[in-house]
Amino acid sequence: MNPMRRRSLSVSSLSGSSVGLAVSLAVSGWLCGPAFAQEGAWPQFRGPGANPVSDHAELPATWSTTENVEWVAEIPGLGWSSPVVWGKKVFVTSTTSEKPLKQPSLGVDFSNDYVAELMKEGKSEEEVEALVNARDMEMPDEVSLAYHLHCLDLETGRILWQRNFHSGPPPVGRHRKNSYTSETPVTDGRAVYVYVAFLGIYAFDLEGQPLWETPLEPYQVYLDFGGGASPALHKDKLFVLNDNEESSFVAAFDTGTGKQLWRTPRKGLGSERIRSAWSTPFVWPNDQRTEIVTNGPGWAISYDLEGRELWRMSRMGLQAIQSPFAWDGLVYLTGGSAREDNKPIVAIRPGGSGDITPPEENDRGQFVAWYAQKAGGTYLPTPVIYGGGLYALTDKGVLSRLDAKTGDETYKRRIHRTARNFTASPWAYNGMVFCLNEEGDTFVVKAGEEFELLGTNSLEEFSMATPAISEGRLLLRTQSKLYSIRAPAETGAGTKGGTEEAGR
What we know:
Elements (H helix, E strand, L loop, with lengths): L15 H4 L10 E2 L37 E6 L9 E3 L2 E8 L13 H11 L4 H12 E2 L6 E9 L5 E10 L5 E2 L10 E2 L3 E6 L3 E6 L4 E6 L16 E3 L2 E6 L6 E6 L5 E6 L16 E4 L4 E7 L2 E5 L5 E5 L11 E3 L2 E5 L10 E4 L5 E2 L12 E5 L11 E3 L2 E5 L4 E6 L5 E6 L12 E3 L2 E5 L4 E6 L6 E6 L9 E3 L2 E5 L3 E5 L19
Parallel strand pairs: 1-13, 20-24
Antiparallel strand pairs: 2-36, 3-4, 4-6, 5-8, 6-7, 9-10, 10-11, 11-12, 13-14, 14-15, 15-16, 17-18, 18-19, 19-20, 21-22, 22-23, 23-25, 26-27, 27-28, 28-29, 30-31, 31-32, 32-33, 34-35, 35-36
Helix pairs in contact: 2-3
């Protein structure tokens, strides 16, 4: 495969759902297991249980660029990884370039109007392809990058150290809504592991000293959208899921050395139209075993810790961006976009073997607690479960609440007439559910069986990363900044984070 080649983009493929596939790529990361438990730790995207909930008295209901801001730190470059926390250290990644990088645009449909405009001008299909590619895609021959891992002090926002772990052209292209560091790092308290799809895995100790690196080969991704699925961590193994157009696989690496322990090809996924996916694998320790649950185009598949397939479930959506997570003995998966007829949310019991797909006429099975075919279609955000309710947020701003045990819908509402363009996953605490859109506005919804919008908080800058929660702080990343939101703000609103050490 030649990573320098530009992917042909047909006009017919320029639907909003296709263009927006890359949008959610920062919404991924996972670690689980009592061996890594630490009070206050947020060791991967979506938190210790991959279900971002917390109840802490100092977590605020309201904020702005100044209200309830403990500190704000500038993060150089572009990146949509979420922050992770261990002890008093916060880790995020980004890339910088001497040449300006293409910046994101709101929503997943912004190319549609552009295509219509070009066709109205009488452009041929080939001309439209070239112009859309030139505007929306960034290819390896167009830019040279420096890849960074940043470590900040949790209490002050001061940058403790920065490490440049790779420099050069990116291995594959990206859509402008994506970034070259959308994958969220993961930490076990011994090291922080940085995975960049199609480039490599990099391990550092918590003081910033490099431990090892493992290069990875590039593969063609659907429409050159780039990577985004984060790694999963369990004890001494790091798991990577890579669904692409050429050679999809799930693999395990030794956390001490970076050596690949096994690689299992993923067969039978996808369609002629799409085989790529951007979902993060989930390590599910249940009452029967520990397994690696994965979401993929058309299928959900579970593996044991040695890479052997345990079960698979068909009738999943082709747009596999959302990530699996568990609650109260069940594992939950969703997939699909609003444009798909099949866009389910499914709850699965432990112990499955082989094909566990219920018959077409059934929404339950021996290992399928419930299957709601039309309930998903969230496309980009992964749902959150809080207080027994599963809150599913679409990229268009429609919030549904389902009973997490039965799948019964209790309401489905547009959050607000102005609420649109959602990429980050919702989170919940203190009786509230929070929904952050790309404009930097967080809509606060009362948790419960009846919908009630409590208010809106704005940070006035583009945002796509799901936040972290640690020690009464909400760590919220915008395009250029990382905010620590806390009530009351102990160090004074708007305190700037500085640099203690500039790394190599």
